[in-house]
Amino acid sequence: MSSPIENVVVIGTGCAGLTAAIYTARANLNPLIIEGTQPGGQLTTTSEVENFPGFPEGVDGFMLMDNLRKQATRFGTRFEQARIDSVDFTSTPRKLVCGDRTILAKTVIIATGASPRMTGIPGEKELFGGKGVTTCATCDGAFYRNMEVAVIGGGDSAAEEALFLTRFASKVYLVHRRGELRASKIMADRATSHEKIEMVWNSVPVSVEGVEEDSVSGLKVKNSQTNEESTLPVKGIFVAIGHLPNTGPFAEAVDVDDEGYFKPSVGSQVQTNIPGVYVAGDCADHVYRQAITAAGMGCQAAIETERWLAEQEA
Ligand code: NAP
Predict the structure, then answer these.
(1) Does residue 93 have a cis peptide bond before it, meaning omega lies within 30 degrees of 0?
(2) For the chain, how big is the Rg over CA atoms in Å?
(3) Inter-residue contact 130 to 212 (CB < 8 Å)
(4) Residue nearest to ligand 1 atom 19, measured at CA
(5) pLDDT tens per residue, the chain (314 residues)?
(6) Do 191 and 293 fall within a single domain?
(7) Which of these three, 190, 207, 239, is where a domain ends?
(8) Are 220 and 207 spatial neighbours (Cβ–Cβ below 8 Å)?
(9) What does each C-alpha distance from 90 to 10, 83, 95, 201, 221 come to in angstroms?
(10) Cα 14–18–23 angle (5° rounding)?
(11) Centre of ligand 1 from the C-alpha of residue 12, in Å
């Protein structure tokens, strides 16, 4: 089944995608936005966002995304829940295939974000989800009231997850493979000085214990300086070691770099090697990865789209 030819299809409803939708909708391009399995993107799993400009007291991540969605809707963005299985960017118009439906588009803005990276240690996969291993403190933290938990990682995400978990857990071990956090100074200071957080420095995760009982009973770690192994007696393990770009169905059609991130053309942050196909947000940015920079890229992609369409029609 084919659809009419869309002016612009935006893929992804995180900060980048919704900003692109707001701008293209206000430019009267009548955008169609495709939302996948996590509407609103990563910010919907964050608690307080303190660094998005314009909110001096901070803003709830879910509320911020809900507001962006309402703003995009107000200017006429159409939303459709679908999963893009494959694309054909050799044809004009561009083709996006989801199940038995093919969407035809003059231009495409890919803003598919990134997904949590996992450690790959034994037991992690088996006990992921409701069994004790998770990547989202906001979603699952309340299940660990008065229990001991561990957070793995050393960046802002790990510090933020650990701090959030202090609201529920009796103790939070922050397990990091180096001797200092990579997180920003303000977040690192808050985490390392918190009375409920115990830093487990220079320690690599070895295995998740509890597979036989079907629920987490501990996290085995190895100190990289002494080679000593020990088991932290935790019931919950929060993995916060970064993200991998969601470029899967597009990676053969659009240039990506060695790490799988979209590789924009020289001189542009958002133009791909395919004319009329743009990228925005965490799927194309492994340097800044902020809500505000994703929104900025969404804006750039939308303006480039508008100009490209105008040039084609001139
Ligand atoms: P990140 O900065 O890339 O940090 C990932 C951490 O995980 C690093 O400390 C890394 O260790 C560790 N790690 C990676 N692979 C590992 C493995 N296999 N085993 C154990 N540890 C591993 O990722 P992030 O914390 O998700 O942050 C991503 C971006 O979002 C950053 O730019 C960050 O500033 C931003 N962010 C900002 C906020 C905020 O401002 N509120 C909140 C969250 C995220 P090494 O240090 O040894 O490399």
Answers:
(1) yes
(2) 21
(3) no
(4) 119
(5) 557 999 999 999 999 999 999 999 999 999 999 998 888 888 887 667 888 999 999 999 899 999 999 999 999 999 999 999 999 999 999 999 999 999 999 999 999 999 899 999 999 999 997 899 999 898 789 999 999 999 999 999 999 999 999 999 999 999 999 999 999 999 999 999 999 999 999 999 999 999 999 999 999 999 999 999 999 999 999 999 988 999 999 999 999 999 899 999 888 999 999 999 999 999 999 888 889 999 999 999 999 999 999 999 88
(6) no
(7) 239
(8) yes
(9) 18, 20, 9, 50, 49
(10) 150
(11) 23
CATH assignment of the domain containing 87: 3.50.50.60
Residues of the domain holding 228: 118-239
Give catalytic status of residue 255 as yes or no.
Answer: no
* Residue ending a domain, choose from 219, 239, 259: 239
- Chain centroid to Cα 274, Å, comes to 24
Instruction: Please tell me the total count of domains within the chain.
Output: 2
Atom 28 of ligand 1: nearest residue by CA position: 242
Nearest Cα to Cα of residue 312 among 119, 105, 18:
105
CA-nearest residue for atom 38, ligand 1, is 156
Catalytic residue check, 282: no
| Marked catalytic residue, from 15, 98, 140, 283 | 140
Scanning the structure block, which residue is given the tokens 């029609």? 313
67 neighbors 19 (Cβ within 8 angstroms): no
